[in-house]
């Protein structure tokens, strides 16, 4: 039994070593088109400590592996994980970290990008958007499914800077894609420059950038990205690979630019070996040795 | 795991490593499995950096369990039973939850591998958590009967207190981090 346990432990080490030796996929570099730098951005990612599985510094590493130029860390009603990530990656040749939060109430979820202090989630949607603007940030309607529509009155719809048109849930729920499309078109009818946003809402399962926004920024910086969203210069791919957003920008999209699914993690044999090793450790962890002495006295 | 009372009778009689190693070996294994499962689920791989990061971040889960267990065992255990041994034996009953985390990781690996993002919804996967929930309760009662030497109703009480403490802390963590769950919906921190 002991030797089997050693074997399970060795499998874990072997699998981790195999994973370390695997080369990551080649990542696309930012391109310049029409005087803009086209940046791939995920505007909705959750981090540990809080409602995400991965800590901020490791999320940035994952963003790089997924070919993202920037991520917004948007924990529920918290900005400090994002500020921590920005501090940890300052000066590094890493994807840009946008500080944000997901303003979360029962009536609506709004991602606030470019804010330093949390916005009171007890506001109405319109007041929350106003508070986000007061900090110089942009407000994006997060996964605007039909249950959240009543929270957006005319003022809120007019003041929104963006709405998630592509969100990871479109791959799981047929209704989600349709509802996000309806909401986006409704906002557009009163607010023509609203930005189409693609975001993963990554917590644990999936990966950052499974849905992403192609931002046409004047400069490769957090300020440049926020300015572009405010001006509505974004493009996203919907579930079916069709471009959504500002039609004037569609011709500027580089050929073969849909990197969402191409940069998905592809588990190799090393992952399976690690998994088998961990399974072995759990199943053999109890031990079946013959008793030699008791640790319990008086029993 | 399948015959917990018999397993605990055997484990009680087993020799075990001295001192701190007895206390930390099974919580450390739990931390490694949780970290490994999260690395596989969230990144599709387990590079040294991923495994180290997730294990380090999420080791607070067995850490909290250890603290709660130590508090309850300090109040209520068979005379002569060392605290370290009791903690070690309590963590021997973690198998069902660890298997469940590995099941979620396996599902995520398959979904990544086939590039299929239309796999069953997460709630379907998470609903399988009912199995380790019930299974662990049975193991905990067996632990109380065989290791702590408690009568049936005291064993049930001990198990209920332990589970209540653990799940209350989990609720506070989730609620505190999102402000969505009661009482965080009413109280501003």
Describe the fold and architecture:
The complex is a heterodimer of chains A (299) and B (189). Chain A has helices at 2-21, 56-65, 80-88, 125-134, 154-159, 174-190, 222-230, 269-284; strands at residues 31-33, 36-45, 70-73, 96-104, 109-113, 138-141, 162-167, 195-199, 213-217, 234-237, 243-245. With 299 residues, chain A is an alpha/beta fold. Chain A has a single domain (30-262), classed as Metal-dependent hydrolases (TIM Barrel), CATH 3.20.20. In chain A, strands 1, 2, 3, 4, 5, 6, 7, 8, 9, 10 and 11 form an eleven-stranded mixed sheet that branches. In chain A, helix 1 runs antiparallel to helix 8. By secondary structure, chain B is mostly helical. Chain B has one domain. Chain B has helices at 4-13, 20-43, 48-58, 60-75, 83-91, 95-114, 122-126, 130-146, 152-178. In chain B, helix 1 (4-13) crosses helix 8 (130-146) and helix 2 (20-43) runs parallel beside helix 5 (83-91). The radius of gyration of chain B is 18 Å and the shape is globular. The mean pLDDT of chain B is 85. Classes of the chains: A alpha/beta (299), B mainly alpha (189). At the A-B interface, helix 1, helix 2 and helix 8 of A face helix 1, helix 2, helix 3, helix 6 and helix 9 of B.
């Amino acid at each position: 039994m002991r030797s089997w346990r050693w074997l399970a432990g060795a499998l874990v080490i072997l699998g981790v070593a195999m994973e370390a030796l695997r080369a990551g996929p080649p990542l696309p570099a930012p391109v310049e088109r029409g005087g803009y730098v086209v940046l791939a951005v995920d505007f909705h990612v959750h981090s540990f400590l809080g409602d995400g599985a991965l800590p901020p510094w490791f999320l940035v590493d994952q963003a790089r592996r997924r070919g993202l130029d920037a991520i917004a860390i948007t924990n529920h009603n918290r900005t400090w994980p994002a500020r921590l990530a920005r501090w940890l990656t300052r000066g590094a040749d890493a994807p840009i970290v946008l500080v944000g939060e997901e303003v979360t109430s029962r009536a609506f979820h709004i991602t606030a990008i470019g804010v330093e202090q949390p916005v009171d989630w007890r506001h109405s949607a319109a007041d929350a958007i106003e508070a986000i603007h007061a900090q110089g940030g942009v407000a994006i309607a997060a996964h605007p499914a039909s249950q959240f529509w009543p929270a957006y009155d005319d003022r809120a719809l007019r003041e929104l800077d963006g709405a998630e048109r592509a969100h990871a849930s479109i791959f799981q729920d047929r209704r989600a894609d349709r509802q996000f499309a309806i909401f986006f078109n409704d906002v557009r009818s009163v607010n023509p420059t609203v930005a189409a946003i693609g975001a993963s809402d990554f917590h644990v399962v999936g990966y950052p950038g499974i849905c992403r926004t192609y931002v046409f920024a004047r400069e490769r910086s957090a300020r440049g990205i926020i300015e572009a969203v405010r001006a509505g210069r974004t493009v996203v791919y919907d579930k079916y690979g069709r471009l959504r957003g500002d039609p004037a920008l569609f011709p500027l999209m580089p050929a073969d630019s849909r990197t969402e699914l191409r940069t998905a993690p592809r588990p190799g044999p090393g992952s399976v070996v690690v998994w088998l090793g961990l399974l072995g450790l759990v199943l053999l962890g109890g031990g079946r040795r013959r008793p030699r002495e008791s640790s319990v006295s008086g029993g | 795991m399948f015959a917990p009372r018999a397993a605990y009778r055997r484990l009680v009689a087993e020799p075990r490593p001295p001192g701190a190693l007895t206390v930390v070996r099974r919580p450390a294994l739990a931390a490694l499995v949780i970290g490994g499962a999260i690395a596989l689920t969230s990144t599709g791989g387990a590079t040294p950096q991923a495994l180290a990061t997730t294990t380090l971040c999420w080791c607070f889960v067995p850490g909290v369990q250890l603290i709660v267990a130590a508090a309850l065992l300090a109040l209520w255990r068979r005379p002569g039973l060392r605290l370290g041994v009791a903690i070690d034996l309590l963590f021997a009953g973690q198998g069902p939850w660890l298997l469940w985390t590995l099941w979620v990781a396996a599902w995520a690996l398959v979904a990544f591998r086939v590039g299929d993002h239309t796999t069953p919804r997460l709630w379907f996967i998470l609903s399988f958590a009912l199995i380790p929930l019930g299974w662990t309760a049975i193991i905990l009662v067996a632990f109380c009967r065989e290791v702590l030497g408690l009568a049936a109703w005291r064993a049930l009480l001990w198990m209920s207190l332990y589970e209540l403490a653990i799940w209350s802390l989990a609720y506070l963590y989730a609620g505190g981090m999102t402000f969505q769950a009661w009482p965080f919906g009413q109280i501003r921190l």
